Amino acid sequence: ILLDTPLLLTEELERIVDFHKKKVEILDCTFAADGTPNALRDAIENLRAQAEEAFEEGKSEFVITDEFVDADRVAIPMILAVGAIHNHMVRKGWRKRVSLLVRSAECMDAHHFAVLIGNGATVVNPFGAEATILERIAQGIYKNISAEKALENFKYAMSQGLLKIMSKMGIS
Known about the structure:
This protein is of the alpha/beta class. 51% of the residues lie in helices and 14% in strands. It has 6 helices and 6 strands. Helix 2 crosses helix 3 and helix 5 packs antiparallel against helix 6. The model has no long low-confidence stretch (mean pLDDT 94).
């Protein structure tokens, strides 16, 4: 699959997941919001273990998501989740055989995309930003623009922001 940008809208991510079907593993990067000591550390270790187990079962497309946040579950910050899985896969010698497909509500600007990509994300789906745009269109806040055009504009702006960041920093 050849992509023009590492930023994917939800529909595009769904098509990739559908294409790879049997090789996809959904990694939930949320944990109980009960305030227990070391809860975040334990959640990160659990995420690494899930990724390792999935790889050993033949999975190679990991969808790392914080979409399961609710009143009882909080998200591991996506940068920690991506970094933990990426570094674990590197240590195991498996990273070249795994794609990290990030689905996050945290991503709202080009800098956040760049940080995630710089830390190992293959692609990023900003479902929170996408939902916000669609909600504003439904409420009539954004007038004279279709949902498709608004999402296209968002994707274009974020992709151009990523390109600007990469041109200034170089690709490391």
